[in-house]
Structures are given as structure tokens and as C-alpha cells.
Amino acid sequence: LHIAIRSSTPDIARLLLEAGARVSAVDCGRNTPLTLAVSVEWTKLIIKHSKSFHITGKDGSIALTRTTENGNLELVRMLLSEGVPVNCADPQSRTPLHFAAMHGLRGFAEIFYREGPNMNAQDNDGWTALHMPCSETKKWSRGCA
């Protein structure tokens, strides 16, 4: 299934899914089929054959946070419309809003805000999404005020 997704062969992926391929399987890179899906078409196909769309890879990556980090706004909208919780978090306790703020993705942050995220959610370092732009600035300056 992973190979079918990577090689953009939806017909083969569909056959594998219909034959019972495990959508929670992870590859050697710790990716699940859902975290590899980079288009709405692929994601809809995987969700259709999955009991849970909130599948995590062995590294804890979650489709919504991975999709945010990759900058795919259309796919983020689709995942949210399918019921993925806006407050889901990765193993470092970073939410999609953390990733949007970290990468300066204002449009993503606005979409998440409309979904009612926990604005005070802290990652494992105690940082909220409001701290994230500062963390990126710190790389290029002496720090934040």
C-alpha cells in the first residue's frame, strides 16, 4: 500500500484496500499510508477503508499535524471536515496550531482558530502556539523580547 501511494497508482491502492490492506501499517520510515497521502483523493480513499482516520505512525506523526507541516491547506480542510480533532497532538504535545504558528501559516491558523483549539495547549517544553514564531526568530537573531 505504501508503494502504491508513493508511486501514485490509486487503482492498485484501491485493490489493496478492498482486499484488506492494513491502513495502520508503518513502513521502515515509520510512515502510515495516511501520513503519506498528500492529496485529497488519496486521503479520501484511505479514510473510506479505515476504521480510524486518527492513525499515527510509529514516530507519533499524525495526519493533521503532518499535513499542516507540509502546507497542504486543502487536505487540512478535508481532514477537519472528516472529524479529525483540532487539538490532536504529536509525541512532543505539539498541536496543528503549534505547527501553523511555527511555520508562519496564517491561513492554517485561522482555520484552526475557527475550530476552537485550546489556545493554551503547551508542548513538552511548555510552549504554546504563541511562542512558536519566537522560536523560529531566535534561530536568526539573539532571541525574542
From TrEMBL:
One of the Pfam families matching this protein, by short name: Ank_2
Highest rank taxon of the organism: Eukaryota
InterPro entries per UniProt: Ankyrin_rpt (IPR002110), Ankyrin_rpt-contain_sf (IPR036770)
UniProt-listed PROSITE patterns: ANK_REP_REGION (PS50297), ANK_REPEAT (PS50088)
Keyword entries, A-Z: ANK repeat, Repeat
ANK repeats: 1-28, 59-91, 92-124
Name the UniProt record assigns to this protein: Ankyrin
Species name: Zopfia rhizophila CBS 207.26
